[in-house]
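Entry 14: structure prediction run for Band 7 domain-containing protein. Input pasted below.
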Amino acid sequence: MAAPPPRTAGMEDFTTTTPVPFKPDNNMCMSTPIDWIFPFLSCFILPEKREIVQLFFGKYHGTITEPGCYCRTIIGMEMRHINTDLITFDMANTKVLDARGNPVVISGIVTYFIDDARKAAIDVRDPHRFVHDQAPAVLKRVVSNFPYESDDDSIPSLRSETAIVSDRMRDELQAKCAVAGVNIVTFSINELSYAPEIAQAMLKRQQAEALVQAREAIVRGAKHIAMDAVQDMGTELQLSQEKKAELLGNLLIVLVGDKDVVPTLQVT
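Run finished. Output tokens:
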């Protein structure tokens, strides 16, 4: 007999072995056969954005989904209340290595609601705790696939392509939390920065890159200005090539230099 294949991590770990179909039960009263024999009923009001999952002698009986007044037997009936309104929680700052191995500090905001009360009440112990536990793992896994910043526009980064990163985190968290009857609305990045141990070094690198880019722009502009000026003056004054080269060099020094020009006169 061949050995079974190894299990792979993924949604298979969270799949229920005996799924029970959803069954609405919005009857005002007389929901179970025992109600006709022993009419010991308990009346209650179900408000908006609330649902009640009913377990009759330990077995799923139905879900009350509509707001209103209901009467249910007190014999063998367990009711589990589920909130279906929007819930938002802010994740704490988490240190993660990006795609280039740089440590970054990142946090996220998750917005979700429960759209399947039966799964939330039966398939998991605490659907809210389930989302809180899965969100950091998804955040770390997705963030590790992107660099903090990228000079190549074709490579998405955490700073420039937050929408792409957020959509991917939402999709992965949705796949993990579907078993709990949770619908993930958004999973967005809240705070993003380099870790303190490399923040100063990265700041110096960014300043150096900005200085190089600024110098490149200055040199390109100075070259065009100097060449146009030499061409115009050379045509009007009939300058020799040596004079043009000397004039071009002087103009470049004046335009590119970061200090004020000091005029000099040749006396010999």
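Notes: The chain has three domains: 20-83, 87-194, 199-256. Will compare against the previous run tomorrow.
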